[in-house]
Amino acid sequence: MRRFAPFVIVAVLLVGAAARDALDDWVNRTDLPVTAVAHSAEIRDRNGTLLRAYTVADGLWRLPVTMDQVDPQFLRMLVAYEDGRFYDHPGVDGWAVARAAGQAILNGRIVSGGSTLTMQVARLLENGPTGAWSGKLRQLRLALALERRFSKTDILNLYLSLAPYGGNIEGIRAATLTWFGKEPARLTPAQSALLVALPQSPEARRPDRPGNTALAARDRVLDRMHRAGVLTDEALHTARMAPVPTVRRPFPALAPHLSDRVLADAPDRQRHDVTLDATLQAKLERLASDALRGKQAELSIGILAAEIATGDILASVGSGGYAPGQGQGFVDMTRALRSPGSTLKPLVYAMAFDQGLAHPETLIDDRPVSFGAYAPQNFDGHFRGEIKVADALRQSLNIPVVLLTDQIGPLRLMAALRRSGASPALPGGKPGLAVALGGVGVTLADLVQLYAGLANNGQAVTLHAQGGPVPGPRIVSRSAAWQVGHILSGMTPPPGAPANRLAYKTGTSYGHRDAWAIGFDGKHVIGVWIGRPDGTPVPGAFGGDIAAPVLFDAFQRLKPQLDALAPPPPETLLVSAALLPQPLKRFRGRNAVFAQEPDAPKLAFPPDGARLPLNDTGLVVKLRDGIPPFTVLADGKPLLTGNRTREVALYGIGKGFVTLSVIDAKGRSDRVNIRVD
Questions:
Q1: Which residues does the UniProt record annotate as the domain Penicillin-binding C-terminal (predicted)?
Q2: Which segments of 184-310 are extended strands (E)?
Q3: Confidence of residue 108 (pLDDT cuts 50, 70, 90)
Q4: Whole-number Cα distances in Å, 117 to 103, 176, 231, 657
Q5: Which of 15, 81, 143, 296 has the fewest CB atoms within 10 Å, measured from its CB?
């Protein structure tokens, strides 16, 4: 028998080698499932904080995560509880499998698992069965194959991404955000124990389900970790006293409008980093909701905050609530075209300063005026007479700004608006003088960008949510921008707001459709819009009444104290009205030398181009201004001389086209062309 022993040993070795080779071949021929896990797209703020996440295609919350982003104690507890020899076995723990097989033979069914973390990953990748022998065999084969092609770190990362935690929650990051409202970087022992226990029976142990199943499962993990020496007596006692969460927390959903836009621009990217600040965004979203509370259900709101020096958008609130309804919360009102009301007036004044038409101390007439058929009126219907330009801007008077726009030219005003980065839309094509009073379509983002440029020494600032600063062209000079900012900083704050010298301007569009307030200090600019998304009027809504208080509140939530405006550039003309150069003392316009004096006589009726019937009562003529006595002529022929009344009837006028003229005592005149039938 001894002489056959060497042959027996050789035979056994050969059989073992053959079996090993067969096993290797069997494992190597394993078809691996797809290991590239689909993760939820994420929008992160400037500090890496999660602003918003989106479910993957099958409706699951599954956020990307790696071991270095997870609390080390959780990882120790996970390995100790689920797979103590994880770092030593090749994917299958022989001792655990033998134990599980023995128990199954004795009981006629599978009693305990011999499943390793790698085998669990294999099951999760294929969503395979857990109890059938065929399923276990497939997991065993796949686990061996995974270990040969991936590192232990890779396998653990897959587990951290795929483990189920109840409902549509997969992965440790989605679980900690759902059950604890936090990232997994720092967890308490009690939280870690619950997260170790949940994947074993995620539906039965869900913390938001009735009963104590989750608590009992967590405490079993804690007790076992204590016996294994992972937890001290004190840590065990403290952890068992901690409550188990009973509600599922919503995922962060900040800046939904901007997030949707960013994702739509790059749908294939998983992570999108933006310039927003999550803390400020949350504050301003709450402010927007509070501002609409108790008001019409159809109202919406937009708030946009940005950093002047960089153009970084720090917060973007597109509505009072991201939901359907009368307020059309899904509509992003930071990008909707609206009438700007009076908010373009600072640009007009800055351009007038640049072109030498006016100075803040220049006197300008606030009086009835007409430009052909266009006769602008002040919002309150009153006239102030002669007033300083700075006061005209602060009081937001319409007539002075139209007078300046007439001299600047509406086309130049539109060009400056475009240089600021805005994309104005004209309903009629060619711009008219009404542009200065809101006769153009702009967005809240356009206006915030314009005011950022004024605050940036007159140089355009490109607002952006991604990327870095982009230098823009010059809109107005440094001195003109400073003068406008200085004027606006003298605006009276709304009632109850701090007197903090915020440079701001309000606006109300025609028919009370839009209420605006835009303001800036030395570092930041914020804009507020309130109205109805469908463009219908909101009776009684004024920018100064409803938008300005929100603007001041927004700055208070941004920072405790305003940053001072920059000092005036050295080239700024800082003098009183008495010391102004003569052409700047009073606004007359470039053609003042050819223009009639303001109190020159005027034919108030009939208007130029009128068509009037001829009758026996004569042609009624009404005069305004001028110094009597008046001479009235028809086609150069005097019809009336020495007249001191301002309403007379003329006789002797024939049918056809007639030129009527009036001359006052100082030789000043006016005339109109009419047609008499």
A1: 594-674
A2: 271-273, 300-307
A3: low
A4: 20, 20, 22, 101
A5: 15
Q: Tell me, what DSSP letter sits at residue 426?
A: -
Q: What is the mean pLDDT of the chain?
A: 90
Dist CA 453 CA 567 (whole Å): 16
- The tens digit of pLDDT for each residue in 224-248 reads 999 999 999 999 999 999 999 999 9
Q: Residue 450 CA to chain centroid, in angstroms?
A: 16
Distance CA 383, CA 595 (A): 21
One DSSP character per residue, 542-597 reads: -IIIIIHHHHHHHHHHH-SSPPPPPPPPTT-----GGGS-HHHHB---TTTTTSPP
Q: Please report, for the chain, how many H helices and E strands are present, in that order.
A: 20, 22
CA distances from 583 to 352, 478, 586, 590 (A): 13, 22, 7, 10
Q: Where are the domains of the chain?
A: 1-30, 33-40+51-241, 602-676
Q: Which residues of 71-93 are buried (b: 16+ CB within 10 A; e: fewer)?
A: bebbbebbbbbbbeebeebebbb
Do 668 and 600 touch, CB atoms closer than 8 A? yes
Q: Which one of the listed residues 40, 42, 82, 661 is annotated catalytic?
A: 82
Per-residue pLDDT at 62 exceeds 70: yes
* Superfamily designation of domain 33-40+51-241: Biosynthetic peptidoglycan transglycosylase-like (1.10.3810.10)
Cα end-to-end span (Å), the chain: 145
Given this structure, which CATH class describes domain 602-676? Answer: mainly beta
Residue type, 353: F
Tokens read off for 135 = 């399923």
pLDDT of residue 11: 43
Please state, in angstroms and as integers, the Cα–Cα distance from residue 619 to each residue in 574, 624, 653, 661, 673, following that order. 54, 17, 8, 13, 14
Q: Is 82 a catalytic residue?
A: yes
Residue 2, pLDDT above cutoff 70: no
Distance CA 318, CA 288 (A): 9
| Predicted confidence (pLDDT) per residue in 349-405, tens digit | 999 999 999 999 999 999 888 888 888 888 888 889 899 999 999 999 999 999 999
**What whole-number distance in Å separates Cα of residue 27 and Cα of residue 25?**
5
